[in-house]
Amino acid sequence: MVCSYMTTTQEVVTRLMEIPAYEPQQGPAPEDLVIEDIVVGDGAEAAPSAVVNVHYVGYDYATGEKFDSSYDRGQSIEFPLSNLIAGWQEGIPGMKVGGRRKLVIPPEAAYGPAGTPHPLAGRTLVFFIDLIGTH
Hints:
By secondary structure, the protein is α+β, with helices and mostly antiparallel strands.
């Protein structure tokens, strides 16, 4: 099994100090998944079946409220893409190690419509994701 990770500790430390900020947007939220590369990485590319190691921060699209952040916990997280919300399953493949991507995820590709049990149900979410590794 081949794994690709960022090449130096300094790169990881630099990324940890650069927590992306988000300002709420005016107007209606997009109805479809929006994928925007902020920084294109130059490492290995994440496949749909990959296990990825990421740092991320999540915001509510409408209010700008931060609801989750691996940066705040001081530790990246590793997991198989197949275990994640649909917006991450669609939005991370093709991303390269060392890259930063912004995903705007409608409720249907996140935690479902309003009225379902998850506290983020019915909300459009914005994630900034730094891909640290993939295998």
